[in-house]
Amino acid sequence: MTSHQSVPIAHLSDHVGREVTLRGWLYNKRSSGKLHFLEVRDGSGMVQAVVFKGDVPTELFAAADHIQQETSLEVSGIVKEHGKIKGQYELQVKNLKVIAAPVREYPISPKEHGTDFLMDNRHLWLRSKRQVAIMRVRHAIIKAVRDYFDSHEFTLIDAPIFTPSACEGTSTLFETDYHGQPAYLAQSGQLYMEAAAAALGKVYCFGPTFRAEKSKTRRHLAEFWMVEPEVAFLDLEGDMNLAEDFLSYVVARVLETRQTEFKILERDTKNLERVTPPFPRITYDEAIQILQDNGHPEAKVGDDFGGDEETVISSKFDRPVIVHRYRASLKAFYFAHDKAVPDLALNMDILAPEGYGEIVGGGQREDDLERLESALAAQKLPKEAFEWYLDLRRYGSFPHAGFGLGIERTVAWLCGLSHVRETIPFPRMLHRLTP
Ligand code: 4AD
Ligand code: MG
Question: What is the pTM of this model?
């Protein structure tokens, strides 16, 4: 680094009328006679640097005409308030130095590109205005998630990634070799959070989770980030209350801090402002009824919901809807059953509005040793791998509940994106492992 300081573009408002130096990359350029307008980005923001022929040496003015997109550069000039747009600033350029010119033309031009091309160039695509805005919203979501739990007396507990067993069914396990024995990449940290809840009461984990999803949809990634709270002595009712309070907090915080990004994304946030408790709650059976009444006469109790069904159900509500008490046979082995109707799992899913589908899944856990053993057997899961988990029911079993929120689906919903591939810096999908 050179010794003298450069100013981040986001801080230019503190320097109006003064000469500053900034470092960044050329995003776009246009010229008209005696002026070059250089759009420069530095990660913190974007500024128009105006090179006026009368202000700079002749060679510099000529050279500025040949700077290519994505050249890294250092620009010095006087900070001016933008003539027309309030809160925007310009740089009246005095000096300009190229740090590194691209070795060839930058592959991503402002024209439209196909999705495959952009995904192949994801490492460069990330520099675009839209992608930067999405990453900032993603960060704001993650920060709000952490702030919520940290300020509600939850302890962060990190779950392992290498695991000996399946949490969410054996069909989506990524198997790997662990010193000669098979291991699986974690589908969820939940089982470990249940152990931790017995130690610390209120806990959460936040990390990457893995599913070998064989289907190509706009909602599924092979690697996604999930936050999973788990609370001792909480029942399904309390779990739904926690989830709706948490989700409302996250949405409100992101709305508060990311208006600039929502504008760039052309996201109408009116619907998001309605995300406040209480969320409507319907049973699984009521959800089936909604489907039957709305163009899915074939829907019947016992069916699982795909993306299309979730869209139909959620379209009946103006905010996220909680669907609870699915048929136990549709759900993972670990759910407690409703005492009144043992066929029903004490689970809940939250469906996001506007067709974004299931963003939260969770519920109350089975705390009875024998019933849990039968559930493992019924789903043909190897008991040995779950001995440690069964110990939680052997030594001071306790009612408890929790849930998982998928970060990428939340980003897609809040940003209004049609596909999860843009919600994570480097998506891993059925046919994509690079870059
Ligand atoms: O409903 P899921 O499978 O629930 C669990 O994993 C529980 N063990 C969580 C818990 O109770 N602690 O997944 C939870 C959420 C989904 O609602 C969805 O938002 C997200 O994780 N998710 C995915 N996101 C992207 N790609 C995938 N393949 C996803 N699978 C689940
Ligand atoms: Mg689910």
Answer: 0.96
